[in-house]
Amino acid sequence: MIRTSPRFDVLPxxxxxxxxxxxxxxxxxxLAVAALAPRIASGSTMRLTASxxxxxxxxxxxxxxxxxAKRQSGYITLDDAPGTPVSFRATGRGALSITLPIASxxxxxxxxxxxxxxxxxTLASTSLTVxxxxxxxxxxxxxxxxxxxxxxxxxxSTPAPTATTAPIATPGTYKFDDEFDGxxxxxxxxxxxxxxxxxxxxxxxxxSSVANGVLTISAVRAGTGWKSDLVDTxxxxxxxxGFFEARLRFTAGYGAWPAFWLAEDWTSGHTNELDINxxxxxxxxxxxxxxxxxxxxxxHYDSPSGGKWSSGSFAYNSxxxxxxxxxxxxxDWRADHITFYVDGVAWKTFTDAAHxxxxxxxxxxxxxxxxxxxxxxxxxxxxxxxxVDWVRVKP
Length: 395
Hints:
single chain, mainly beta
C-alpha cells in the first residue's frame, strides 16, 4: 500500500474504531489552526508604497499597504535599521497606513522599507530614497529691508568687488515668489500638457508633491519606462525680462535630466527658450562625460520672421558634485544681455542682443529621464528626484 502521509504510519496498528477517532482528532486540530491563522484573500498580493517616495532625513513618510492578511500584525523597518521598528495591524480588508519617521542621521541614498511579521518573516517591501536633511547652512533667506539712514556721511572709499554676485532685492520687489509652504501645489502651477514629452518618462501629476516647504518631483519606473512630471506657470503667469532664481537639489542616476527653464508656448510654433539649468545627472566617475558635476545653460531664439537660432549650450563645470546638495541657480535676463549665476556668483554673460528673446515666458521645472542625458540603466535609482525649495522672480 502507498502511504499518502508518513505522519499516519501508526494508524495501521490501531483497530478500526480507534483509527477513526485519531483521524477525527487530527482533522479537528487542523481546523483549529486554520481558524487561528490570518486569512489572505485568494490571489491577493501584499504591496507597500511610500508617499513621498523620496524624503529628507529627519522627515517622515507615510507607508501604505494592501493585500495583507485580515488584521495581520507586524512591524516596518528601514533596511533592518537598528532603530525602533514601527508596529502595524492591518484592517479587516487587509490594508494599512502608518507614519514612518526617518532618522536625521540616516544615510542618504536608496533604501528598502520592509514589512515583517512579529516573528520576523518578510511580508512585503518598497523602495525609498533618503536625501540629506533639509536644513542647510547655505540657505538663502528672503532679504530684509534696508532702513533709510538718518544721515549720509561722506564715503571714505569704495573697494572693488572680488566677484560679480547676484543682485539683492528689497521686500516687495518680487513679481513671483513661491516658497512651497503648503501641502499641495498652488493653482498657479499647471500640468504642462502643451510641452513635448519627458523622453523615457510620461508626465503624471501624481509624481509631484509638496511637503516640509519643498516641491518634490519624483521619477519612478512604470512598466518598461518611467513616470515623472513637469510643472509650469503657462497660462497663469509669465514675465519678460527680470531676475529668475530657484534653490534646487537633485539625485544622480544614469539618464536623469532635471531642468529649470523658461519657454514660449510650443503649440504656437515658436521656440523661444531660456534654459537656466539642465543637468545631465549621470553619476560622477561613471562612463559618461556629462555628469552631475556639470550643468548647462542655453539660449534659443525664434525671430518674428521665423528664423530659429541657438547659442549652443554653455557648460558650468563644478569643482564638486552638485547632486544631493542645495544650490541656487539664476538668470538675469535683460534686453541687451543675459547673465547666468550659480550660488550667487556670475559665471557666464551673453551680450548678443540681436538673439535675446523678447517675449514673456512661464517658469518651468521638470525631471526627464533618458534623452539628452543618455538612456537610463538598471542602476538608475527609482525614485530619482528633483526638489525645489523656492523660486523667486524680480523685475
